[in-house]
Specification:
This protein is α/β, with parallel strands linked by helices and 217 residues long. It contains eight helices and seven strands. Helix content is 43%, strand content 19%.
Length: 217
């Protein structure tokens, strides 16, 4: 199993990179654990207070559960991944079953900033993008998917996203094995990454095929 961590600022194009990796590999070979699915439950907080939660700091994520799920997948065990609603800012009762795959991608803005999580990664990627481009993508996304107005998004960007990016996300770039400039538009960097992944998988498959049958049982 190859565990890949993909981080980068909000709106940097991480999802585009993840999708291009998935599309470059055989169907069913990749499992994805988004950091956003592991936000701590906020149902105990009054609804009017939930909008003030800082989702861009490490304390907002249940890292121990994410780490546990990665360990289970590496052991060949399926996990029940939680789901989270941005509309209500609460963890949902439904879960998503994730089966072990040859490639597991952990994706999120903060995933390279957590030492225990980094230890579990075989490849660490940081998707970089210009701040203005990221803001434009965030405005488009949050207005459509999260019911926010452009003013709400810009205010949140100035008050939360920008300072948290500078404090937590940008510094984690130094842990990356590969930095992808220009986000999901950098086809050269993405092709290099997918070629590397395919090469690693071929080596793993060759090792398994060369093992005596008694070791494969």
């Amino acid at each position: 199993m190859l565990i890949i961590g993909i981080a980068g600022g909000t709106g940097s194009g991480k999802t585009t990179v993840v999708n291009k990796i998935i599309n470059s590999l055989p169907i069913g070979e990749v499992a994805v654990l988004p950091q956003d699915s592991y936000y701590k439950d906020s149902s105990h907080i009054p609804p009017e207070e939930r909008c003030k939660i800082n989702f861009d700091e490490p304390a907002a994520i249940e890292w121990t559960l994410l780490e546990k799920h990665l360990d289970m997948l590496r052991q060949g065990r399926a996990v029940e991944m939680p789901t989270y609603s941005y509309l209500t800012c609460t963890r949902q009762s439904e879960t998503v079953r994730v089966e072990p795959r040859d490639v597991v991608i952990v994706e999120g803005i903060l995933v390279l900033g957590v030492p225990e999580l980094r230890k579990r990664m075989d490849v660490k990627v940081f998707v970089d993008a210009d701040a203005d481009d990221r803001l434009i993508r965030v405005i488009a996304r949050d207005c459509v998917e999260r019911g926010r107005t452009p003013k709400m998004v810009i205010d949140r960007y100035e008050e939360v996203l920008k300072p948290m990016h500078n404090m937590y996300i940008e510094p984690s770039k130094r842990y990356a094995d590969l930095i992808v400039p220009q986000g999901g538009n950098n086809t050269v960097a993405i092709n290099l990454l997918t070629d590397y992944i395919e090469g690693r998988l071929r080596k793993e498959h060759q090792k398994k095929s060369q093992q005596p049958e008694s070791e494969n049982v």
